[in-house]
């Protein structure tokens, strides 16, 4: 089998802070892993009028370091989600107006116990996604 483990150094990251993702791949297959892709996705849940989810990739890092059959690799890949790299994308949630200089990607919505989610309008979260591309 092919084993993938991804770890973050901490639970909370702030605007402009690089996110190091420690990726460990154990390749016990007969195939070669050709590429590792780490991405950050912004998930916006619009609950104002429905419960629509919009997912946009806001940071991406790729490594084409090969992992041959019956071998292992541990690598730190760093992603940095910034508005500056996403200005041309449509549908991304922001803190502020696009034209303002101090605007960032929207912060994650923190919901405390007892708060009605529907009054918040848009809930924002981020997820790290790791993808392996295998030959043949």
UniProtKB/TrEMBL annotation:
Q: What are this entry's molecular-function GO terms?
A: G protein-coupled receptor binding
Natural source organism: Laticauda laticaudata (Blue-ringed sea krait)
In this chain the Arrestin C-terminal-like domain maps to: 1-136
> What is the gene called?
SAG
Any Gene Ontology biological process: signal transduction
Which SUPFAM superfamilies does the entry link to? E set domains
Q: Which residues cross the membrane?
A: none
Q: Which GO terms describe its cellular component?
A: photoreceptor inner segment; photoreceptor outer segment
**What name does UniProt use for this protein?**
S-antigen visual arrestin
Q: Which family does the entry's similarity section mention?
A: Belongs to the arrestin family.
The record ties this protein, via InterPro entries, to: Arrestin, Arrestin-like_C, Arrestin_C-like, Ig_E-set
